[in-house]
Amino acid sequence: MRRHAARCALPWVAAALLAGCATPDRLSTVDTRNENVGHQRLQPDAAGGGGQIEPYALAATEGYRMPQLYAAPDPVVGARDPRISLPPTTVCLQVVVDAQGTVERSQPLTGRSGCDAGLAVENAPLLQAAQEAVAQWKYSSAAVCRFAPGKVPDDRGDCQGADSIEPVAVTLQYAFTFEIVKGQHVVRTQGR
Q: The whole model's pTM is what?
């Protein structure tokens, strides 16, 4: 008789377990804050505005190799800026790169078309994030290439075949466009 009772109880236990597994999912909404940032190198401002850079005039037997950026972590604003949304906002920096390709310093670039958002006090966290990021950037060094008379190549920018190569410090300008997007996502939780 015990065996029969145990066999009869099994379907009830299985049904109870399945009922426990069939508990409806709970849905909850979580607010999100997503940061997007992009950067681009700016050409020197020929209009004479803020951030104008004095160009170096090359001799007929000289060439110039541009610095190449090879390590560039993106700026992260994080909790220092409590805004949950921000339309695309551009701030600019003037970046001094030494002859070894290390960022020596950076400073806000204002007075140039498209860079005035850096003047607003509320955008100070954006400038700070950009400056912290560029402090970690690494470049292959810029250089002035000197060629022998009569041996100046058509492309004087790669220094191949130069008699001498002199690494030089440069000043570059960058625009950083930040955007903070408020969103929501649904979290599905099973069980109780």
A: 0.73
